[in-house]
Structures are given as C-alpha cells and as structure tokens.
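Problem: given the chain below (342 residues), write out its structure.
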Amino acid sequence: MNSFLRPNIDDSVFGAVHLGYIVVQSQRLTDWRRFGADAIGLHVDELGADSLRFRLDDRACRFLVHRGSAEDVTALGWQVDDHETFDRIIARVADRGVPIIEGKPEDAALRGVQRLWWFPGPKGIGQEIFTAPVTTPEPLRMLSSGWVTGEAGMGHVAIVSREPEAMRGYYHTVFDSRLTDYIDENVSGLKMKIRFLRVNERHHSIAIANIRGVKIDPIRTRVQHINIQSATLDDMLAAYGRVTDLGFRMAWSVGQHTNDRELSFYCATPSGFELEVGWNPVVIGPELESTWEPTTYQGISIWGHTTVGETVLDKFAQFRQALRTVRTSETTVPELAGGLSR
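Solution.
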C-alpha cells in the first residue's frame, strides 16, 4: 500500500480504494466470451451456462458477465485496503440514511471476493466494496502478455451525466476522490465538460462527462466506457487488430488523449457500452500528488481517436432535436451528493 496517498488527516480514505471488478448483465454470453478472450486477449473462465469471468492478473475475477436482460454494467466493485477504512466508508453511507446490503455468499464467490457490501450509486450503478479478493495460482491463459493493475486498480469507468456535480459529490463523499483535471469538448454543437476524478495513483478512476443543456441521456447504457490498461504497446496494438479482424465494431481508432497522455482505442462490447484498451497513461505518484493542480484541456485527443462507424458522436447528432423538448430524470443519491459545485 502506498502510504503517501493516505494522509492521516480528516479521516481521508484516498489512496486506500481501488477499482477491483466490473459486473455486467447480458444475454450474449457467447459473444462476450469471443470478445473478451479472442479479441481483447483476456483469460476467461466459464462458470456453468449463466456466468463468465475474465481475469487480468492473479485475481479470480476482474469482469463478471452473468445472464440477464440489462445489457449493461450493473455494479462496480471497489477494493478497500483495510478493515478500518472499510468501516469508515460504511459509516459514511449508513450515517446518511442510505441502505447498505451485505452480499450473499454466492454473490461474493462469483465476484472472487470473500465478503462484499452493496449500496446504491449514481445512474443506478450499484457500488460494492470488499477488502479480501480471492487470488488463484492458476496460470493465465490469454493472448495478451499482461495488464496493469496493482495500486492503480484495474482501470477506470466513464459515465455521461446530466447531474455531474451530484456524481462528483457522491464519489468525494464516499471515497474522498480528488479532481485531476477537466476536458472541454464540443460535440455536434453541444458543449461537454468532462471531470476526471482519482481515488489513488491512477490519473482517474471515474470520468464524468457533463452535457450542458441535454434533457435526455443520449447513451442507452449506464456507462459510456470501461478502461483497461495493456502492459505493452504491442499488446494494445495486437488487440486492436484482433477486434477488427474478428468483426467487432471499432468505435474510435488508436489515438492519444490530451490530459493523461494514454494511447488507446475504443471498441463496442457485446452489451453496447465501449471498452477502451489503453497503454502508458500518466501516473500521479508521490512526486506529483502533493503539487498537482487541476488543468482544463481543450479537446479529448492530441491525435487520432477518429470515429469508426456509429459512436457517441453520432448519437448526439441523432438526439439533438429531441433534446429540445423531451425531459427525463437521472438517478442520483442525494444523501451522498455533498456540496461540491465545480
């Protein structure tokens, strides 16, 4: 554990929280197996007819795909380093009157953890916390040579939101997230500000894209994309080639982001949200953490990331007229939203 990330002031839990696993509900398990194992290059374990697990490292589970109709991410699993921090997070949630449910032993087993607790999150994405992941000595059988996890967690999640202040407040209240930076982007005439939040040394574990003036969510799924990090550039480029060769939809070509400098591509998963496979992003280690100041960048990419087929850009254009007249609500957890305004 990197103690520099955990100052013993104000009961902060920053640095002790790491994205541990993703839970997906889908009817397309055959497609998911082919996508995860054959295209992206992950280790796959089939758990009967109704569940798949993908591994990136020695953890028993990094992605759980189980049968259901949502075709979406339904939960994010967060590892907490120690029981003291775990109890502190539980108290923050419970003291604000938000329901907390202990997961059933069979649910914990599917997720590759010894115990877990669940509570509601923004956009209806369940938040699950655990302290003891199950590891396995079984060798990885995968096309990729490796993935970057460790202190930075397994990757990040990006969410489109019309309630970005509430979402940022939620992750600050629960996990003491810190604002890393912003990106301003103009998409089909709509201004979009993206906030990037970190909970450990990874540049961001949560990205929140605010679409100003949008009255309906142009993204069907709760998340816009999930990110995982290749160990080598060759691994990332090989995955890009396999995704293309196997006929899965590429959403954004290889490019480099302005803020975290990650090289990556985006492809559509069988459930519709995107998977970003990246390489070599900025790490906010001890030499940077104490002096880091949020910056606003203009545009998502330095180069590349050109659209391939239908992407979120197309969806914005399709919905633009409807946005003027239709209003729907977005699920928030106001008890945990806090008072952050930026």
